[in-house]
Write a structure and sequence with these properties.
Layout lengths: L14 E8 L5 E8 L5 E6 L6 E4 L10 E8 L3 E9 L4 E7 L8 E8 L4 E5 L7 E6 L4 E7 L7 E7 L3 E5 L6 E5 L9 E4 L4 E4 L8 E6 L4 E8 L2 E8 L18 E7 L5 E8 L2 E8 L4 E4 L6 E9 L2 E8 L2 E8 L8 E2 L12 E5 L6 E6 L7 E6 L13 H8 L2 E6 L9 H4 L9 H17 L7 E5 L1 H12 L7 E4 L5 H7 L2 H10 L14 H4 L7 E6 L8 H12 L7 E5 L12 H12 L22
Parallel strand pairs: 30-31, 30-32, 32-33, 33-34, 34-35
Antiparallel strand pairs: 1-2, 2-3, 3-4, 5-6, 6-7, 7-8, 9-10, 10-11, 11-12, 13-14, 14-15, 15-16, 17-18, 18-19, 20-21, 21-22, 22-23, 24-25, 25-26, 26-27, 28-29, 29-31
Helix pairs in contact: 3-4
């Protein structure tokens, strides 16, 4: 086993995996991966053997987080990968044939579009590696067949409006079910690839949507809103009888995500989130009974494939990076995982229930928050989100730098019931801020006098919440590092995209609170933030405009605090700079700042004044 890569400071290099896709047949998977300072590259997973086997497929110039890979079979039992590379105003489809002995892949451009939206659905018929969907002019979608060879694509159909999803209805790959993503555009429809014609999928009620199918037997899984909640339904492709909504299936407690049907369509794999971890349930759709499969405590991603070779899942634990695991016989066997993840080299974590002002607050904890020299209170984005019991590269870096990490799921987080989740509706920076301040005091008291005070880290909504905590009780914290903060709900409503405005409307994010702290506006509260602060923001953030961080940095400079704020803007990066091509450098800067190092360790990024972009 090769040694784990390290950073120039001697810390273990983070391992990231994103953008996983399974082949339509489920025999292979592909993702993007990066070790430490290396650029993202495709990684292929062979799922045909006794355990999943990954192998890197380096490309000539590397990839960014807007590349989406899809595996497909090549002649001579090899596997290639299709790469959808998306730019700001364009997109390209490339075929990458793996090289030998670690050489870069052989790349062939198959398609280029002057529009950013390309969709790719894996094929199951011979001679069709995938279908490509291009959003064309006049709200039309062109469909192309991708053979998997270095040759022009074959036009298949032109559809009116946008098309999303993609569920194969038969084993010979002739009929594909698609969905209209726009509200009111109609329900599920079926594209016949032999004729290029489309028609509605018969038998579905109004508001009922197709989720997945077992093509060999014709069993369909659907979802429909009934009595104010979404319910899962079962029907048959060739039967027009009303959909059945199994009673016990729809009474499972927790946040339920359907993962995969078995090849025969009798059993359904479900990921159920309760608190910070995932549970794998296997439901018999005929008997309407459920059993839980044995998995290590961790987190499941909402993508899976169930083939005759087993149930293939995307699973992660705090000390094991995201990867494919297989249950050869899910109803009877234990999980099989690849052994390539350097076991024992990553820091494990545990969950702790801390007392809160309105009840316990669960946190994922790395290290010893009492005895460690430094402790970081890490706040998640959202607000309708949560920290999960899975691998977090930045937390691993913090733990390797002898920092304890406490990542709480305060009120407003998901996974703890409706009352916990909805506690901040119309009260952003209210109950959740109270939980964070209470936890900060608890940690400080446990550490005792003379020890370093807790530090704050947050991203997106968590960044906003962290800076509210810094303003509410500045003497409680040693310093704060935040990524992509917004100034206030009202300012974000004015400047943000429609999806963010809809979230603010739904959760009451513009409501002003009338307590002693006053309106939750970071620009107004900047004078109170007397601690060292580092702000990081992606220049191309499509969710929270970078102007919010620029304005906040200017206000902090004008406040003339004893320690000038640090501002880092990442060119070309979107909402999360940690997963950008410069993500390892951003992590370096965060670790340096939290370790109170006066100078950065390495790398070309510069710490610049307000409004200045970082050179690439």
């Amino acid at each position: 086993m090769s040694p784990l890569p390290t950073t120039p400071t001697g810390l273990p290099a983070e391992l990231r995996r994103i953008n996983f896709r399974f082949s339509a047949t489920g025999d292979h998977a592909a993702c993007l991966t990066a070790h430490g300072r290396a650029r993202l590259m495709p990684e292929l997973w062979d799922l045909t053997g006794p355990a999943p086997r990954p192998r890197p497929v380096p490309t000539r110039d590397g990839e960014d987080s807007w590349t989406f890979p899809l595996p497909f079979p090549l002649p001579a039992d090899d596997v290639g990968v299709l790469l959808c590379r998306h730019g700001k105003q364009s997109a390209r489809l490339l075929l990458a044939v793996p090289g030998t002995d670690g050489a870069p892949a052989e790349e062939h451009e198959l398609f280029a579009s002057h529009r950013p939206g390309l969709g790719l659905i894996g094929g199951i018929a011979p001679g069709a590696a995938a279908l490509l969907f291009e959003n064309g002019e006049g709200r039309r979608t062109k469909v192309w067949r991708v053979s998997g060879h270095a040759e022009p694509l074959e036009p298949v159909a032109e559809l009116t409006g946008a098309a999303g999803g993609g569920v194969w209805l038969d084993a010979d790959g002739r009929r594909l079910a698609l969905a209209r993503p726009e509200p009111g555009a109609g329900g599920t429809f079926v594209l016949d690839l032999a004729t290029g014609l489309s028609a509605p999928l018969e038998g579905l009620a109004d508001g009922e949507h197709l989720l997945m199918a077992a093509p060999r037997t014709g069993v369909l899984l659907t979802a429909a809103r009934r009595d104010g909640a979404f319910r899962l339904g079962v029907r048959h492709r060739d039967d027009l009888a009303p959909t059945a909504f199994p009673e016990r299936l729809n009474r499972i407690e927790g946040s339920v995500t359907p993962l995969a049907l078995d090849p025969g369509g009798r059993h359904l794999a479900l990921s159920v989130t309760r608190r910070s971890r995932s549970h794998l349930l296997l439901h018999d759709l005929v008997a309407d009974t459920t059993v839980e499969a044995e998995l290590p405590a961790g987190t499941l991603q909402p993508t899976a494939r169930w083939t005759t070779g087993g149930l293939h899942l995307l699973h992660t634990t705090p000390d094991r990076p995201l990867g494919v695991v297989t249950l050869p016989d899910p109803l009877r066997s234990r999980v099989r995982a690849t052994a390539e993840e350097h076991p024992g080299r990553w820091t494990s974590a545990r969950t702790v229930d801390y007392p809160g002002p309105a009840g316990p607050v669960e946190a994922v904890v790395y290290g010893d928050p009492v005895a460690s020299e430094r402790v970081v209170l890490a706040l998640h984005g959202g607000p309708e989100a949560a920290w999960h019991f899975g691998f977090e590269p930045l937390f691993q870096r913090m733990a390797a730098a002898d920092m304890a990490v406490v990542a709480p799921n305060q009120r407003g987080s998901t996974g703890y019931g409706a009352a916990h989740r909805d506690a901040i509706r119309g009260a952003w920076g209210g109950p959740d801020l109270a939980d964070i301040l209470h936890l900060g005091r608890t940690l400080a008291d446990a550490r005792g006098p003379g020890r370093r005070r807790p530090m704050l880290y947050g991203i997106s909504y968590g960044a906003y919440l962290a800076l509210l905590a810094a303003a509410a009780e500045p003497d409680l914290w040693a310093r704060a590092a935040v990524i992509a903060p917004f100034l206030s709900g009202r300012e974000l409503y004015r400047d943000g995209p429609p999806s963010v405005r809809a979230l603010l409307d739904r959760l009451g994010g513009q409501t002003e609170l009338g307590d002693d702290l006053g309106p939750r506006d970071l620009a107004r509260l900047a004078d109170r933030m007397r601690l060292p602060i580092m702000i990081v923001h992606g220049e191309q953030d499509p969710i929270i405009p970078v102007t919010h961080s620029r304005r906040l940095h200017s206000r902090l400079l004008a406040a003339a605090h004893p320690v000038a704020p640090v501002y880092l803007e990442i060119p070309g990066s979107d909402h999360d700079p940690l997963v950008s091509s410069e993500g390892h450098l951003v992590a370096d800067r965060l670790i340096d700042f939290l370790n109170e190092r006066a100078a950065p360790t390495a790398g070309p990024l510069e710490l610049l004044p307000e409004g200045t972009s970082v050179p690439a």
